[in-house]
């Protein structure tokens, strides 16, 4: 109260009046700063923000429906009373975006248009950033108010079955929690709520925090890849989409209405693209399958968005390697988680990789569960993929990639790999040196063997020549005596025979020279003896 003065008396000569007034005003200002609303505490801001979110997200669906209904009725007649019928239909579509089944006369639609869900989450996010005070009371009051608003819309549109009301409560609460956490915990001035959340997160084990961080990163990478693939599909099938639109022959109002409906289902196609990348694929109608290994199509309703589905030629080929991209997302998530795992035990690394894969798998399975279901009667009763199987595939692929990078970035693994590389290089050097040494030692041995063979051949030839030289004079003398002549003396100073004999194994050459004077009338041809003939045969 302004009248309360806890300071010195104003008439005290040691203290002036302005001091007391200043203390009173400071106390009053502090008391009023506890809540920005004059109606009560911060919880009021949560109520107001949730009401804004419900109205804005509902208007995103209802306003275009009213405009389309008015335009269509204007073309048919002057009456514009048909817009009242568009409000309940648009409200049911808004509820379908929150997971409430849409009951019609021919089928019960359960597929969630994720575009409407995204618009509702964004509306809560904006209200949280602009209106709601970041306190616990405001947070929970906003979540409760948004849930109650979803239930009121369900009751007002006649969606009063037990399944529909339960789905409305759970869907509204889920949308509110996601939008509030996104807006209040990531704002420029988070406030005490973010501080409380940081304290709670700090109490978690380090491996859990690292695993959650890596899982969020991997899931974001998979979502980015899915969006890029969806854009590629739309670009490739744009001509087919145009053909479907031209065959429908819609007016301007109907074309705009159909375009808005396609935007609401475009995120579903992005989720299906994620199942295609992961490997399991998806179905759009009974008997169909769209996967990287095989594409089996069938006649489908004339919906332009279905023209962007992969053609049968897209199955097989390079597309079978698409699951590798999910492993790359796991590598990125593992790298983000590995920045704080240097000093962890090795089995902590395995736990972190498992958490990264599990978190990404749960996120992917949840999105597939929302995007799949019954889209209409007949063939459209089976649309989407199995969330459990898809989640398991994503968890395995992301976990494997995360484990790979987490193990490679550890110091002991670095040391082991470096040691193995050094030992392998040393063995290669030793092997190359041994081969060079063997090649160098083998050449002299071969040359020596060749030389020894040549020496042996020379020795054999020398022996043959020596034998011939020794027998030639005797044979000549015998021939002369047989002819009746006397052997002629040799010339003075001229040797009758000369020869040089080498021992076996010597490299020197051996020559034998025989000089025999010719006798008149005698034959000069010497007949070799039996020993000389054997020596020649041996050579």
Automatic annotation (TrEMBL):
Keywords: Membrane, Transmembrane, Transmembrane helix. Residues 495-530 have a biased composition (Polar residues). It comes from the Bacteria. Residues 1-38, 422-539 are annotated as: Disordered. Residues 443-464 have a biased composition (Basic and acidic residues). The keyword Protein biosynthesis does not apply. This is Uncharacterized protein. It comes from Sanguibacter keddieii (strain ATCC 51767 / DSM 10542 / NCFB 3025 / ST-74). The lineage of its organism: Bacteria, Bacillati, Actinomycetota, Actinomycetes, Micrococcales.
